[in-house]
Specification:
With 228 residues, the protein is α/β, with parallel strands linked by helices. It is built from 9 helices and 8 strands. Helix 7 crosses helix 8. The chain is globular, with a radius of gyration of 17 Å.
């Protein structure tokens, strides 16, 4: 069975695409970004100095993080269990949004989580989403998709997501935070955000989720037929 890597910036739609594609193909869906968010949340909960790289790496190596099938029908695509507690929506908070790029840039954090991701991905039959899947985690994946969208479109999506959950946020602030996060992600020294040289780039601006899914299914079907 093939492995599928889906990368892209925040709110590009890669989480939704990855989950629906995995369901369509009866593959395992794995959102690596949730793991980095969980480490960030754990650091915030423990009131660690987020600039203390050594302490954050130690936390990443010991935190118990698990992704499971969704237990509630509240819009979640999976459950995120952090140290035994359901933290699915807490990892999507604005505070985590503002700090996850810093945490995920630490080489030790990426090393700790990448090992877990590679072990799962090498089994095949998996759709893995993140920011360095096609370039670092699964460089030999049979299909690599880089899903992109304008920062304005992505900010609008995140704004709608947060307000739907009752959070009071400003669209302009979300857009600025997203620009800063893009800057951090694309310029970090370890595993920067970029499309793999052999990735298929799909822009989701103005496209319905089903349109993007149909394109991804066609690509996956082609790769599976070629692998037989």
């Amino acid at each position: 069975m093939i492995s599928i890597a889906i990368d892209g910036p925040a709110a590009s739609g890669k989480t939704t695409l990855s989950k629906t594609l995995a369901d369509s193909l009866e593959f395992l869906y794995f959102d690596t970004g949730a793991m980095y968010r969980a480490v960030t949340l754990a650091a915030l909960d423990e009131k660690l100095d987020l600039k203390d790289e050594k302490a954050i790496v130690a936390l990443a190596e010991t935190a118990e993080i698990d992704l499971q099938a969704p237990s509630q029908e509240d819009g979640r695509l999976y459950d995120v269990i952090l140290n035994g507690e359901d933290s699915t929506w807490r990892i999507r908070s604005k505070k985590v949004d503002q700090n996850v790029s810093l945490i995920s840039a630490y080489p030790g954090v990426r090393a700790a989580l990448t090992k877990q991701q590679q072990r799962i991905g090498k089994r095949g039959g998996v759709v893995m989403a993140g920011r360095d899947i096609g370039t670092v985690v699964l460089p030999n994946a049979e299909l690599k998709i880089y899903l992109d969208a304008s920062v304005e479109e992505r900010a609008r999506r995140r704004y709608e997501e947060l307000t739907m959950r009752g959070e009071e946020v400003e669209l302009a602030n979300i857009e600025e935070d997203m620009r800063q996060r893009d800057e951090t992600d694309t310029n970090r020294k370890v595993a920067p955000l970029r499309a793999a040289s052999d990735a298929i780039v799909i822009r989701s601006d103005g496209k319905l989720a089903n349109e993007v899914l149909e394109q991804a299914i066609r690509l996956a079907t082609e790769r599976m037929e070629a692998a037989q």
